[in-house]
Give the backbone structure.
Amino acid sequence: MKIVVTVKLVPDPNAEKRIDPGTKRLVRTGVETVLNPYDEYALEAALQLKERIGGDTTVTVFTMAPESLKETLRKALAMGADDAVLLSDAGLEGSDVWATSYAMSRALKEIGFDLLLVGGLSDDGSTGATPGALAEYLGLPCITNARKVDVVDGGLQVERETDNGYQIVHGKLPSLLTTALTFGEPRYASLKGIMGAKKKPIAAMTLAQLGLDQPVGTAGSKTELLNVAPPPVRGKGQVVEATDGTNGAKVIFDFLKEKKLV
Amino acid sequence: MKDVIVFVQHKNGQTPKVTFEMATEARKLADQLGGKAHAVVVGAGSSQLADQLKSYPLDVIYINDDADVDGFLLDPIVDYLEAAAKGVGPSLVLIPNTLLGKDVAGRLVARLGAGLGADVTGFTIENGKVDCISPKMGGAAITTCALKPSDYGIATVRPNAFAAAPGGAGAAITPLEKPAGKTYAVKVEKDVEEGSGEIALEEAATVVSGGRGLGGPEAFETLLKPLAHALGGAVGASRAAADAGWVPYSLQIGQTGKTVSPNLYIAVGISGAIQHKVGMRSSGTIVAINKDGQSAIAEFSDLTVVGDAFQIVPELTKLIEAAKA
């Protein structure tokens, strides 16, 4: 079975981010680019399935990113993916959800797979809509927010998170699956994995290979980013030392009353 | 884009508050676009919910009680919405920014070849052009994104960002025909509801949240729950508390958890790491109770009371209960 996992390379979620009011861009200084944390869960799911199914099951990682971020992809290989495909093209810059999923779907068709695993959300764009759009373009059933996945009789049995609880659903292969953060912590790359990743192949792909019918990138996108602004400043408020519980409670109560919150 | 269509997420007729927020906003947007405001309600319980929705300022509510909507994953909903959008004509589709909503929105992006504004907290419309305002990167940036002129546009709407107000003359309820010749790929075997009866975190007007400083799961029951109930709110937690197994992950607020923007956020024993901050920084008023006045949370709280939460919280609950009585 061939499993493909799509990953995104994003600014480090644990870094405090700031928008430069002049350039309206993210201040990149001191902010590392990392694997989107949500995608690490999808990769974990793929690696677990590979271990469980065995045989000739392989895990390929796919990403759409500038060539310069190629080395960041090694982390996925170090975690245990067998190989990677990197779609890089200046023509992809500024792609929105529509353009991204359309271009990705064509690349993924080229690569081929039995199961496609996708992270539930990207930490930077965070629309959460790419997996659904991708499934449509690939004509695949789409099962999102999986916390438990089993391949049973050639089909899929999935336990998935919903807004009010959980569901158990039955699907088939091929399908597109996204993982929830309750799937289980992604593994750490072992030293052996890190060493081995250096030799694993990362294939390059460009837009020209995909023969798209419609333009992507900024020009082809259905949306246009007009403005990026820093959030309203949230200044430091009062800090009050409570003399005891009753005093502390009174300070808060009076404050809430003044704000008409009680 | 001329008309506005609201996708109504519900289970057996029970719908989150964001539905009414969207119905109210849809009217305003439709008026500015010179079109009508519609809603689509499908699945078991649609008729009763449509009756409830009639008191909001919509023009037409399309319904179908089709059991397949609940028996299969997502596909029927997407088919109905596509059919409704194509029936109505050029329109802006509003979808709640929930787990289900994000899935629906993604599928419709491809079906309608539409642009998407995600996690929208405000709209501006000028000469028929729709701009969406959304916080990105955990609220570190506020973006304005235009839906380019096109027949269809989609927006996922953040709960608690728009006001809900009943009004209007009463919408017409019209059956929506089941799209023919569709097959559904994923069967729902079991659908389990958890935590019913509690106010959903994302919807709560007040959130009382606990962290590592509470020292264990007991304080969530004995301290936070009574305070949250007194304030008519919900209980949340930091990642540290969820990781420690004190509360289920469904209560976790932050980067890898839920994003909330209540009117009032009370953080008890939470240090205020970036992981937590991004999930709650857009709250109206933030109050922190912490034994360390130097902790990060004080930097972005409107009021930080330095003291023992175990002493302060029960007294605060009493004061609030007394004020209500």
